[in-house]
Amino acid sequence: MKTLLLGSTGYIGTAFANKLDNHEVMTHKNVSVQNLLNKFVSTQFDTIINCAGFVGRPNVDAVESNKEEAVHGNIILPSVLVEFANIIKSVKILHLSTGCCFNSSDPLTEQAEPNLDWNSEDACNFYAGTKSMSEKVIGRFPQHYICRLRMPFDEENNDRNLISKLIKYDKVVSLNNSLTHRKDFVDACLSLLSTDAKFGTYNIVNSGHTNNEEICKLITQHLPNIGKSFDDYKFFTNIDDFLNEVDCGPRSNCILSNQKLLDTGFKMRSVQDAIIDSLKNWR
To answer: CATH assignment of 3-158+178-206+254-269, given 3.30.420.10, 3.40.50.720, 3.40.50.2300, 3.30.110.40?
Structure first.
């Protein structure tokens, strides 16, 4: 397998770059059908892993004031990849998506339609709308994997890491959610590719679910030097109460079933084991 990696400097892309033995890199700003054709002629890659996209900093609320960048990164870029792949039909696409397109307290399989998109009755932030649309765009090409992650974390302090965010926050929504360990996600995606798993959408989350109150309790137990105790947190179990007190846009809370991934033979850790391991090795 020879891979073209897009978004190689991002939070998830760097983890892919560290794992891939045989890959080429292209910046998403240079992606066009012609440039992809030129790259294919010179390197003969057979897989595109698309980690590129516009998330917003410090969080998805920033997307609301950068809608043009979000449309380009999350909709137009995937459209270009599909157009190229329809020309070079030997190439397959692995596209990173997100559970942020869903709201549900019950486990959702891959057959569930996003209920946080521009057609939904519930409030949808612009980021979720673009990512939901990107799944529809990639889904037009038969040889694809859409790999959904949910609130990524691991042992490395980073502004995209859920644990890092919770260390900084004082007011936190605490509803049950699926989570994804960053390196477990990469291993699962590469397993799909190496085993020629059936094409389609996969929820790549750690087994089980948790909530932010449980995570914060573990954080204060395992990281006593962060200068904060468990009593310093204020938890909300009602999203409307949280939005009334904190200046932010709509948020997703959901549980995703990873049974389809497990059925491929991939062994995924529980979310609790992955969190504790990350805290024990925190740096």
So the answer is: 3.40.50.720
Report, in angstroms and rounded to the nearest whole number, the Rg of the chain calculated over CA atoms.
19
Which tokens is 67 given?
């809608």
pLDDT in tens, 202-220: 999 999 999 999 999 999 9
Enumerate the domain spans of the chain.
Answer: 3-158+178-206+254-269
Measured distance CA(237)–CA(229) in Å, rounded: 20
Q: Which residue has the tokens 């925190």?
A: 282
pTM of the model: 0.94
Q: Crossing angle of helices 126-138/77-87, nearest 10°?
A: 0
Q: Taking a C-beta distance cutoff of 8 angstroms, is the pair 132, 102 a contact?
A: no
Sole residue written with tokens 């590719």: 193
* Cα–Cα distance, 125 to 66 (Å, whole number): 12
CA dist 114 and 124 (Å) reads: 11
